[in-house]
Hints:
Elements: H1 4-22, H2 26-39, H3 46-59, H4 63-76
Protein name: Biofilm development protein YmgB/AriR
Pfam family, one: YmgB
InterPro entries: AriR
Amino acid sequence: xxxxxxxxxxxxxxxxxxxxxxxxxxxxxxxxxxxxxxxxxxxxxxxxxxxxxxxxxxxxxxxxxxxxxxxxxxxxxxx
Length: 79
């Protein structure tokens, strides 16, 4: 009996889980950006954070990674 359809779904779910586990969380992304700005001797402000978030989004290699950056950018401008 072949279960190739269900195996493919299971394999995809496992791959998605591992992929998510490797990606940094939103808190890690933001923390790394803050450290990067401070270590560069720059002023920590919305513009500096937004610039780094936009650059990170441009360099992101997966849709999920891009979405994490997009969410952070949206949070930056929420009131």
